[in-house]
Amino acid sequence: MPDGLWVYSFSALLYLIWSENFRWLTKILFVPLVVLCVMEFLQYLKIISGTFDYNDVLTSLIMYSLFCINIKFYKSEKKIENY
Q1: Which of 8-12, 20-24, 50-54 has the lowest mean pLDDT?
Q2: pTM for the predicted model, two decimal places
């Protein structure tokens, strides 16, 4: 769960910083997920210390998906308020 929360919070921070520049936003929001997957893979190869766990990757994917769903609802709610 800590890795999933890390991915969610890091994605949210990047969204808050880059939300005005949509061109970069779509590319930069993948950074937290990629960083976590690379770290887990390096743990699997024993290059860095730690224990590889499929549950960490799965939890992070779920939390990233929840973040994307949350942003979609936030955008649609923001459009409704502007009318």
Answers
A1: 20-24
A2: 0.74
Q: Output the CA angle 63-5-32, nearest 5 degrees.
A: 75
CA neighbor of 55 nearest in space, from 16, 3, 13, 14: 3
Instruction: Say how far apart CA 26 and CA 64 lie, in whole Å.
Output: 13
pLDDT digits (tens, 9 = 90+) for 38-52: 999 999 999 999 888
Nearest to 40 by CA among 61, 24, 23: 61
The count of C-alpha atoms lying within 13 angstroms of the C-alpha of 72, restricted to the half-sphere facing its C-beta, is 6
